[in-house]
Structure formats: C-alpha cells, structure tokens
Amino acid sequence: MSATDLLVRVAELQAARGDVVLVTLGLGSCVAIMLSDSAARVGGLAHILLPSKSLSRDDDNPGRFPQSAIPTLVDRMAELGADRRRITARLVGGAAMFASLAPAGSIQMGDRNLIAAREVLTGLAIPIIGEVVGGSQGRSVWFEVASDRIRVQSVGKSEHLL
C-alpha cells in the first residue's frame, strides 16, 4: 500500500476525491460497495458485514449494513462534489465461504448481503454497472478513484478489472 491508499476495514466506509486508492482486503461473504461519480473524480467504498440491522446488537456503525452505509456514502461523496444523479455502483464479494456447512436450501450470508445491497441501490436509483460476486473464494479490491478503475484479486485467480 502507498501513501495515497486508504484502507477500508470490515464495517467501515470511506469517501475520497482525486488521486486516492480505496482498498479493502479479505472479502468473503462481506460485500464491497463502490460508488463513483467519475466526472467529479469522487468515489466511495463501503465494506458491509451484514444484510440487516436486525442481525446485530450493535447498529450504531453505519458501515456495517447496506441500509445505512450506502446513504451515508452518497452524502459524504456529495460533500466532496459528487452529483447524486451521476453516481454509479459496482459490487464485489458475497462469496459462499462455508456453503458445505450450511443446511441444504438455506440462503448464504453472502447472497443475503448482495440482495440487501442491490435493494438499497435500486431504492436510491443508483445503477449497478459491474459486479464480481458469488463463488466460494475470497477477494480484495483496489479502487483508483481518479481513474474510476477497480482491480479485483480473487484467491487463486488472475486479477480482474471492473
């Protein structure tokens, strides 16, 4: 990581402008939600942990859930000059890390996180323009805000540009 990299840990979110790389490492069932206004060179990344506040005793952290993370990220991006009408989204993660341990027919936490994120984005009229989701491998993300380029590294696979 370089001096312009901002690490976004589990249940955190970060908005930035210009020559900054937003980085999140070790996504499993969690979902990284990247929002971008490429014209303003403003972006944001949230590393959500759970699909709903009802699954947690601690609901004070807006970065933990898509229902609070996405609107908070949009607000922070707007403060940095983003136009809400130009914001687009990309999703990474939502893997079924322990599918073999779950009862047959159950919905995996990764799938639940993806469904919740998509619902919030749809409700805010933010189009999803790319995804690297599902599967059973962990992933890491590097979001270059100025160029609006996202690099995704999946365990055991070559790098993917999103």
Explain briefly what this protein structure is.
Helices cover 18% and strands 34% of the residues.
What do you see in this structure?
By secondary structure, this protein is of the alpha+beta class. It has a single domain (5-161), classed as 60s Ribosomal Protein L30, Chain: A, CATH 3.30.1330. It has helices at residues 66-79, 109-123; strands spanning 5-7, 13-17, 21-27, 31-37, 42-48, 88-93, 128-133, 139-144, 149-154, 160-161. The chain is globular. The two termini are 20 Å apart. The mean pLDDT is 90.
Main traits of this protein?
34% strand, single chain, five-stranded mixed beta sheet, 60s Ribosomal Protein L30, Chain: A, alpha+beta, 162 residues
Task: Give the SSE map.
Layout: E1 5-7, E2 13-17, E3 21-27, E4 31-37, E5 42-48, H1 66-79, E6 88-93, H2 109-123, E7 128-133, E8 139-144, E9 149-154, E10 160-161
Parallel strand pairs: 1-3, 6-7
Antiparallel strand pairs: 2-5, 3-8, 4-5, 4-6, 8-9, 9-10
